[in-house]
């Protein structure tokens, strides 16, 4: 069975939120309101997966296979789809089947174009007969004109109907993609074999058919792109809210005040880590977006200069060098501003996090734990605490619980790693300090100036020659009177501009992705380790509790399932 995270993640959000709401309804009204307040699930726009390609390329069969036949798609050897069909996959994903392009029907091409513009992910289907001129033109239109290369997967369908020598199909895909050959993944599959496997009664034969179909590789490619582009991030926040609400509800059910104290401190630590990681991610994405905008503005300025020279009576192409130099300067400045911005974001966010940790250390529950025989667990800062939050249990002699030593070790370690330690000197070795230091030492990636000059020339001199890279009869432009010719020339100029912008933007996105990937690795290494430690201590406390009710067990199961799905969303290929 296919495991497409675009579908599995929102399904988990829906299922777990419903189960958790039903459990919370069993609590007293004041407690129920408190925890339901944590369970605010924002509605997100459903992701759109658009399937495109020439007629009879196997798009409809591919949709049925990806959904395990949940989508009722008409499959016919003729031109099966004559309109854009949107399949609501369990209310979670929109699957968009487009008419086959280059079928001699202009309406089909127009409908497919409209769907592609709004796509979150595009699957370009081509059969084992591979590419003809029309399909190459359509593929490059998607990558260059629509700028969908980062969201594109090329799928060679019907792979078991015709054998191909090693490397032949890869070479064909790379040739068709051209400039974007290294950016766009491609896979082979036979969706019909997969569907046959679903109906095979013999378990062994069914398993062999499913494996031989290659549909697992298609699913992996889609999941990989979704992770790299952050498309799955929209489901992380609701899952985190579910885990948080379930965890805090479980803490409230603990009869032992000391257990409730440690579980509450752990929950607050985990929430602080989760929220801060989300704030960091949002701030880093803003820096990347600003970098992208600056690069687009810079290359659009170059395109304007090239077109201005091109349209003058006596084009002086030597002026293009100055415009190219200006582009390189602007790109370098934008790159440096992006790098500096990333470092500033990490520094300021982690400084704020340290203050938040100090507040947790000064909480009434932390005071209560220190009063237990876990002496010196938390070195509380001089921050006023609302001691009214902690109720006197009336116990004159408090027994040190079995989870005490492990909790003490964790709380000391958490303070040293994320708080102020014993002073500024100690704080210099904290996890936050180490992250800031490593981010400041990250290697940078730069634009290659000679490429900018070459691309700039392509929009002018070579294009004017009429036979290189982006051919167009520009000499005829000044004298054409036919309205259709003017439109054609205008479209060609727009296409050249988009190609130029797309090439610079591809490098910009690569720089941003490479930089943020390294930063995220540093952040994830420390944050994930801290979360794991919290979860380990939490598990130790839970292991020493007698399960008080089915409600407690069910809440724990929901929290575990939410965390498991979060882990899957964060996996790397």
TrEMBL record:
- Fetch the InterPro entries from UniProt: GTP-bd, P-loop_NTPase
Q: Which domain of life is it from?
A: Bacteria
Q: Where is the G domain?
A: 49-157
Q: Where would one find coiled-coil regions in this protein?
A: none
Checking Pfam families in the record gives:
MMR_HSR1 (PF01926)
In Swiss-Prot or TrEMBL terms, this protein is called: G domain-containing protein
Species this chain originates from: Gordonia alkaliphila
